[in-house]
Structures are given as structure tokens and as C-alpha cells.
Amino acid sequence: MYHPRLQSFGALLVLDADCRRIQTTSTNLTRLTGIERPENGQFTLACVLGKRLSQRVRRELQGQQRLPGPLVFNRSKHSNGRFQLHAYRAGEQVIVEIEPLNPLGKRRLLGTVNERLMHLAEATHQEELLDALVNAIQQLTGHERVSVCHFDSDWHGLMVAEALGKQLPSLLGQRFPASDFPVALRKSYQNYPVRLIEDVDAPPETLMPACPKTRLNGCFLRAPAPERQRYLNRLGVRGSLSLAIQGDTGIWGLVFCHSVTPHSVEPPLRDAVRTLVQMATQRMLLLRARQEARYLQRVQDSLVLSARARSEPQSPQQMLHEQAAIWMKLFRAHGVVLWMNGGAYQAGMTPPPEAISQFVLRLERAHVHSGPWCTREIAKETLTCSLDMPEQCGALAVPLPMNSTQRAWLIFFRPEQVETLYWAMQPTTSPHPASRAAPSTAWQEEVVGKSEAWQRVERLAAVDLGEDLTLAISAYEISSLNRHLEHERKALAEANQRLEQLAHFDPLTKVWNRYRIEEAINAELVAAKRYAAAFALLLFDVDNFKQINDAHGHSVGDDVLVALARLVESSLRGCDHLGRWGGEEFIVLATHSDVDAAFGLAERLRSLVAELRIEGLEQTITVSIGVAVWQADDSCKTIISRADDAMYRAKHGGRNRVEMALEPVELI
């Protein structure tokens, strides 16, 4: 028979679905609230909460899964005086959790939290941000050790930040195996991001009378499972508070607060800590977005062709010779190959030509979509394990669509990156927690046979590089045709048409590409300055586009971009223009538009996109739009930058929204 086990810092009531009858209570209800059990053994809700509060609970739970927020009530006859309750439905029952509220000094707590929030908002990089977070939490809660654990792609945890007292050893820089964070535990943190264990060794409370139907999986008061008790005991921990850090696509990591003695954390204090974690998470995502944007800009800057190169296109061999060192530095590679027309142009440390040819043949058969292909274990990857590549451990390959039937390939290679990992607990495939290593010496593992992982932003940058390289190669081919085949006018006309298409239109969506929309913006800037004709830029991208690609594949992602481009282009005036800025980003150039017209257009496009439906995709497609209206001192770079800033504010303001660019502050 199932017997729920509860922690003693709070009491529990189990009600029927109508909140009229108490079916069972935790054994500590009388001790915690001072309410004596009636002679017939049956509590009433009004007896525990009072008539007015019990009616309010009943009213607010009608048709709802849980109360919108905690409720506070007084028990003047009890020493604690004030209590807080949460109520929610669990199947055909209603669970009511009650905790005592001790005076914390709300003004002082609010002031402290606001001060810490300001420190988090001022952090300029992730390490500084996480250090500020753990120190703030330790000062608020008084735990001996506050750590931030970040999950890698294999769900191993790395302690990346720590605030430490004197009674617990440091875990900073150590790793915990994925077996410490099973799938059920991670899913639990996604639904219930805060977990408090006041005293892991305290005897648990139970329900009286026993109620076999009651399930307390989401109960905050539930006692730790025996395996979690053993785990914390091995760590030398009795009091624990943990909070989930949510990333873009799931749990990024956890905050652990540990104490060697029992440690209570009042509900207002838990709420304050959760606010700090949420603020730090948003700041971390923003810092990462800015860092990725700077990196992408560096890659784009490396692709800008000089005026001489535009008039005298370079051969692929010349381009690789001039740009290889920059590209290898940007992509942390030690070799780069440009494979086209059955041959390879190579720079740095690369495999022999025969191995490259075999590699490309296999890519052509196995990798049919337009996205990049990558691995960090060439020796174990099915596609490459039998190839002669002894000096290579990682590869990133980007297809270059030269025409409808032929692709070239840009391939980066990385060497082996031997890495020494320091484990707090030895990794194991056993379902039981591993043994804790001695505090003085962590268990070490040397990882061999792998390169550095290819980051998402590097894959995006490689695609951008490939698109520009395709254009440059096409320009060179057309130049060669113009020099050697002038007498064949038909062939020359077809080649120029191909160049025009590649130079001005995105091959996937068939709208203007980045180069063409930039030309149109510059032309509109000249007209605006000469005739004071206002115009606006709308910069937008698809919300959660990476999740679509990851869940449904790049072919569905391509379908989303094509359908979105057709919808937006068909909804514009004849004098407006649409261009693909890169990846899932697009720009609308709205001529003769003031602030009101631009905002109205953006809202109309946002609403239209939200109604778009893609075959094979159930979720709604939404966009975040940043709008910038021309100002007298604008350049192409500044007006795009203002629209980009507004779009990022729309992203971080909740997505599926429109934000106007901020007016510049005039210095007096």
C-alpha cells in the first residue's frame, strides 16, 4: 500500500473535489497549527482555516487546477500566529499545503533583493553573473554552500560557480555523473522548479487516516526518497534547497544550496531566491545572445569582399589562400577544405585528397538537406570511421548549392582535444548514486578521441559563410565565362541570369537576399536625406525556430521559412520590399512610412503569421518584430542596429510581439 511521506516543516490537508470534506491530514497538523483533533476525529476545513478563508479557497478553486497564488491566514491562539497555504488539484482530490510564516522584515528583504537584482543586471559575462547569483543566495539563505551546476549534452553536471562557507568542501570545477540526475528527476524540476529538504534525517510525517488514493508527486512537502537521502548523506548534507535554471530548450542547470545542519527557508525567502534565479537566467540568455551576435558579425565581416574583388572576382583557390587563416581561427579549426567540381582546395592540416573525395561522396548520399553536418568523433562516426583521417577528430561540413544538381562543400577539421575531467563521483551506469570521492582528491578521467564540440552559433556562422562563398564562387565562374566565352552570347546570357539570381535572391525563399536588401536600404537612405521621405525597417525572426528544426528536421524548418516568406511578401504594398537577412531573420523595407504606419504594418504581419499553418507541424508559428523609423543621422548600419535591438527586446519580452526602436538620448 502506498504511504506518502512528508516533511515536518509544513502540514497537509487532503480534501474532496468540492473542498467540503477533509479526507485526511498530516500527523503534525495539531502540533503545527495548535488545532486539536475533534473527538469524532474529523477536522472540518472551516475549523482549520476559518469560515471566510475556507469559502474563499472553495470559490477560487472552482474550475481551476490551483490557486493563483498563496493565501495567508492567522491563528491567534497559536504561537506561530501566521500561516501560508497553497492549494491545488491532484486527480479527484484537492491538496492543501500549510506552512508557518515567521516575521522576516519585508522591507529589509525587499531592499536586499532589489540590490542583488541590480548586481545581476550589471554583470557583463556569465562567470561574473553566476558568482553574483551564488553569493546573493548564500547571503539571503545562510546555507554553507551554494553552487550552480550546468548540464552538458550528456547530462553530466559541472559545478561552474560556488559560494562556500567553512563546514563543507568545495565542489567548484568538479563533475557529477548523469546517473545523479535521472530523467524522472529532471522532468520533476521542469514542472516543480523549487525543492526544499529542511532536514534529510528528520523522521517523516504521514497521513492520518491513511488514504491509498492520495498521490503527492507534485507536493512541495513530500519527504526525500530513500535514495536521495543516501545521496545527500554521502555529500555530508542535511539541509538542501535546489532550484532549476531553465534554458531555451530545457533545463540548463540547477542551483544547489547545502547545509551540514537542518536548515529552514521561509516561503517569502524562497520566492526571493527564485526571483534572483529567474533574473539571472534571463540575463545569462541575453549575454549569450549578445556574444553569439558579436561572433556572427566577426564571421560576416570576414566575408565582405573588397571593391577590387567585386570587380575582379577571385578563384576559389585564391579565396581559400587569403581567408583560410582567418576562418580557421574563427572556427577553432586546424584545417579547411573547399571541395568543388571533383577536386579539393586545402589549407592547414587536412586529410589526403582520396579520403576527402570519399568523405564528400558519402555526404552526398547521406546528407541530403541544406543544413550543416558535424561530428566530434570521426573515428566512431558511421560515415567517417573507415576513412583515412588519423590527424582529425572533428569535422564540420556545409553544402554549397552551386546549381540545382550540383553541390560544393566547405569542410573544417579539428584535432583531438584531450581533456581531464574531475569527477566528484565516479560515473556509473548503475541506477544507484555513485560513491562520493574524497574531498581532497576528486576522481579524474582523461577523455581522448574527441575534438571540441561544434557550438550552435558556429554551425550557424558556417552556413552564413557558405552562402557568401557560394555567391563569390559564382561571381568568379561568371567572370571566367565572360572572358573566355564572349562569342557564345546565349551561354553568357544564361550565366549572367544565374549570377543575378544568386546575387539578389535567396535560393530557399526566393525573396531578396542580404546583399540586395542592403542595396535597397542604402538607396532609400539617399532618397530620404534628399527628399525627407520617411521610411521604416521591420526586422523579425521566427520564435523558437531551433526547436522546430530539432523536433521536426530541417526540411520542415525550410518549409516554415518558405511559407513565411510567401505570406509576408504577398501582404506588402508594391513599394515595400522583403529580404532574408540570414537564418530565420527577415527584413521588410517599408517606404513612405511613419511611426504609426510602420507599427500598424508590423502588427498586421505578426497577426497574419500567427495564423500560418504548416503541414506536419502542429505548433503555432510566431515572430518577434523590431521596428526602426528613419532618422536624419541614420546610416544603414545604425537603422538596422536599432531594429535589431528592438527585436531582441521583443524576444526577451515574451516573443510574438512588436517593439519600436528606442529614441536616442540627447546629451545636454
Low-confidence stretches: 428-441
Fill in the CATH topology of the largest domain: Alpha-Beta Plaits
Q: What would you call the structural class?
A: alpha+beta
Mean pLDDT, all residues: 87
Q: How many helical elements?
A: 18
Provide the spatial order of strands within the biggest beta sheet. 3-4-5-1-2-10
Enzyme class: transferase
GO molecular function: diguanylate cyclase activity; kinase activity; photoreceptor activity
Pfam families: GAF (PF01590), GGDEF (PF00990), PAS_2 (PF08446), PHY (PF00360)
Domain GGDEF: 533-663
Features:
668 residues, alpha+beta, Beta-Lactamase, six-stranded antiparallel beta sheet, 24 strands, globular
Description:
This protein has 668 residues and is of the alpha+beta class. It has 4 domains: 91 residues, PAS domain (Beta-Lactamase, 2-Layer Sandwich); 150 residues, 2-Layer Sandwich (Beta-Lactamase); 144 residues, PHY domain (Beta-Lactamase); 155 residues, Reverse transcriptase/Diguanylate cyclase domain (Alpha-Beta Plaits). It is 39% helix and 22% strand. It has 18 helices and 24 strands. The strands form 5 sheets. Strands 3-4-5-1-2-10 form a 6-stranded antiparallel β-sheet. Helix 4 packs antiparallel against helix 5 and helix 4 runs parallel beside helix 8. It is globular. The protein starts with 10 loop residues before the first strand and ends in an 8-residue tail after the last strand. 34% of the residues are buried. About 2% of the residues have low confidence.
